[in-house]
Amino acid sequence: MIILPDLEFPGFPDITPDDLLPGGGDEPAPDYVKNIALLYEAALNRAADEPGMNFWIDSYESGWELHAIAEYFANSPEFQQEFGSSLDDADYIGVLYNNVLDRAGEQDGVTYWLEQLESGTPRYAVLVDFALSPENRGNSPYVEDIYQGDPGYWLFQ
Q1: Is 18 within a domain?
Q2: How many CB atoms sit inside 10 A of residue 78's CB?
Q3: pLDDT at 23 exceeding the cut of 50
């Protein structure tokens, strides 16, 4: 037996056993990570795949704004294939209600969003508003379970 007299070893006071588990303990994902996952689902009618979500998170972290990502999604071949390439404003709003909120739009809401588009609000900005709405967040609790695996790489539980 080796005896090491009077040696002190550094402790790790801020690390708990839970911090070593997937998800890093109780630390929630930052809002921008959750927002990208919500936007992905809202625009493409499916949950984000992890590599794709991480690509857009990296893009956001390198300077892309959420509205630019939404514009890219709204103009993507996948969006066009899923919803059509020549939607008028009313059809676009209908798609957002049905796809993002899983319901038909109420008349006052549809009128509001059509007025927003008619006054010059870009479609991608309306997409962001739908994606980040409290109603959509309530319909998408899985975003609260996103955690960081390796540094800079986000995963779904």
Answers
A1: no
A2: 12
A3: no
Residue 2 lies in a domain: no
Residue 107 lies in a domain: yes
Q: Is residue 19 part of a domain?
A: no
Phi, psi for 148 (deg, rounded to 5):
-90, 120
Long-range contacts of 144-152 (CB under 8 A, 24+ apart): 144/28, 144/34, 145/23, 146/29, 146/33, 146/34, 146/37, 147/22, 147/23, 147/24, 147/27, 147/29, 148/23, 148/24, 148/27, 148/29, 149/22, 152/54, 152/58
The predicted-structure confidence for 30-80, as pLDDT tens digits, reads as follows: 999 999 999 999 999 998 999 999 999 999 999 999 999 999 999 999 999
Domain that holds residue 38: 27-155
**Based on the structure, what is the number of domains in the chain?**
1
So what's the pLDDT on residue 28? Answer: 80
